[in-house]
């Protein structure tokens, strides 16, 4: 692994660790403030709504000004959002904290673009897998830390400690970027880039494969947003699990995802190719959701379903990111990855906003059934996207 990629790996771990600490806590905070499942999942969705609006902007800014400045700006915003969360005593500040964090979440597009900058096309899936694994490690470690710091009893759970830990972790990541991470785009590279960069709709209109990849991401990540936002509420209602137990369950899912992204993907991607391997990951994820939906009171079947889901997302995510990055011509890579991240952010808006409604109106298992069903067309979309790649075609028709 190149030295800059190693540093980015640790920056991504520390950054996402701060976010992961809060994942099992937000629903319990909403419950303590008297919010219904629909309101709680909507607050979760507000983060992604703001991220959806901001992701293309941050991608273009990283093309124009460099990856480091975007990473440092977004990390500073994350610190502020966690500080607000630490003093939140009602739904208003909880919502403001989530919206600010979402708007400043430009680091994912910039991190993936950075990894793409320092990788050859042949190494792209592996590099994306490394960053994906870092994100998974951050969630994997952060979730049980957050649950442990809060405690396992809803009535006495402490939400201030996890928020302050998140502030400290984001500051640590900010210092790593400032003092250890070199810029991946030279001044000459940035000078070649258009003043504003290509807009998302322009990219999607002109690049058919990117449309397919973004559409597949919209379906898969919507489904994952449903799982992520409703699982804590579902586990609390079905089994009475507190923050610590839910955190440990999600830790297991993240561990499998990390093992796939960080190790197996490097061996499997060259053998099967990103379109096929990503499609197999989608199928595994859909099967996992179906097993959770039919598990009833069986914790074993729930565990097996979550394992399939974790492995499936571990295979899908780096493959889809690698395919998206191949639709760029180099100077506009940040804009391309920002557009791709915008589709995943929109999906994370849709998932939480519908999950609470489905849970309350159609039954507690309906979010998992519907989540499994909507991922199936993504298999065809991802396979279709593999037929074309800008890196293997002439530049005619490409956005300048």
Give a short account of the largest sheet.
Answer: none
Gross morphology is globular
CATH class: Mainly Alpha
The secondary-structure class comes to mainly alpha
Helix content: over 70%
- The poorly predicted ranges are 390-400
Distance between the termini: 31 Å
Report the order of strands and helices.
Answer: HHHHHHHHHHHHHHHH
For the residues shown, what is the average pLDDT? 80
What is the H level of CATH, i.e. the homologous superfamily?
Answer: MFS general substrate transporter like domains
Strand content: under 5%
Number of helices: 16
- Using the 3D structure, state the CATH architecture: Up-down Bundle
Q: What does the radius of gyration come to?
A: 20 Å
CATH T-level fold name: Growth Hormone, Chain: A
Number of domains: 1
Strand elements, count: 0
Task: Please give a structural write-up.
Helices cover 80% and strands 0% of the residues. It contains 16 helices and no strands. With 400 residues, the protein is mainly α. The protein starts with a helix and ends in a 15-residue tail after the last helix.
List keywords for this structure.
400 residues, mainly alpha, disordered C terminus, Growth Hormone, Chain: A, globular
The gist of it:
With 400 residues, the chain is mainly alpha-helical.
Lay out the secondary structure.
Layout: H1 3-20, H2 26-32, H3 37-65, H4 67-86, H5 91-103, H6 107-117, H7 124-150, H8 160-180, H9 187-192, H10 200-206, H11 208-239, H12 243-272, H13 274-294, H14 299-325, H15 333-362, H16 366-385
Helix pairs in contact: 1-7, 1-8, 2-3, 3-4, 3-5, 3-6, 3-11, 3-15, 4-5, 4-6, 4-8, 6-7, 6-15, 7-12, 7-14, 10-11, 10-15, 11-15, 11-16, 12-13, 12-14, 13-14, 13-16
